[in-house]
């Protein structure tokens, strides 16, 4: 299946730093009955990136000229999403943004890809054993997609493992930042299109070339 990416510039000032679920909910609140796509369940083939910005370290990010709303979908549905989302106003827990100036692009291959947050359902989130189980889950997910690559858990600014959380209905879902190296062109594109782990419609499992700058927190 061929995928395309739609990028929208934003008109707005701030967003919650943890906005993955709020962003998904805002899109779902649009009258999607008018948008007939090949994916009737919406969740199966659509992936959404979290929006980058400048964090204030108090739970808010400030949008800048680099901030974008990004959605990947099957190529056959891209034109419908492009037209339907243009100029839509989304309410993310009281923070309003308008989607403007849409651009359609093809994901570009890179030997190394990065994701800010990948989540898997692990039975044990013990700090000592969780990284091992998590990496095993990453490797299995890559194998299931027939992707050859080497996954690593990323580090944060302090040099510790990049353990991060996504809040969904008051519950924290834990995961790690992930880097995958040694990808060929086809596998790099496949990983960007299909992602890893769950909650991809909440911004998780979204991979991008490491040359891209992403300041979302």
Question: How would you describe this protein?
Answer:
It is a single chain. The protein has 217 residues and is of the alpha+beta class. The protein has two domains: 3-105, Alpha-Beta Plaits; 113-209, Alpha-Beta Plaits (2-Layer Sandwich). It is built from four helices and 13 strands. Strands 3-6-1-8-7 form a five-stranded antiparallel sheet. Strands 9, 10, 11, 12 and 13 form a five-stranded antiparallel sheet that branches. It has a three-stranded antiparallel sheet with strand order 2-5-4, with no helix packed on it. Strand 11 and strand 12 form a beta hairpin. The protein is globular. The relative contact order is 0.22. Residues 213-217 have low confidence and may be disordered.
């Amino acid at each position: 299946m061929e995928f395309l990416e739609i990028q929208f510039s934003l008109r707005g000032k701030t967003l919650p730093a943890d906005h993955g679920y709020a962003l998904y909910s805002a899109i779902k609140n649009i009258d999607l009955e008018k948008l007939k796509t090949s994916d009737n369940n919406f969740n199966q083939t659509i992936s959404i990136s979290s929006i980058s910005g400048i964090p204030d370290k108090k739970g808010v990010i400030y949008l800048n000229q680099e901030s974008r709303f990004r959605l990947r979908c099957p190529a056959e549905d891209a034109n419908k999403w492009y037209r339907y989302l243009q100029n839509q106003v989304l309410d993310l827990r009281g923070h309003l943004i308008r989607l403007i100036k849409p651009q359609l692009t093809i994901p570009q291959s890179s030997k190394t890809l990065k994701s800010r947050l990948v989540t898997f359902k692990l039975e044990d989130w013990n700090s000592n054993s969780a990284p091992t189980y998590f990496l095993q889950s990453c490797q299995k997910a890559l194998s299931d997609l027939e992707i050859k690559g080497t996954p690593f858990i990323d580090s944060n600014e302090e040099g510790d493992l990049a353990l991060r959380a996504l809040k969904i209905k008051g519950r924290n879902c834990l995961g790690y930042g992930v880097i995958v190296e040694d990808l060929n062109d086809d596998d790099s594109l496949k990983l960007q299109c299909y992602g890893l782990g769950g909650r991809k419609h909440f911004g998780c499992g979204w991979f991008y070339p490491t040359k891209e700058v992403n300041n979302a927190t």
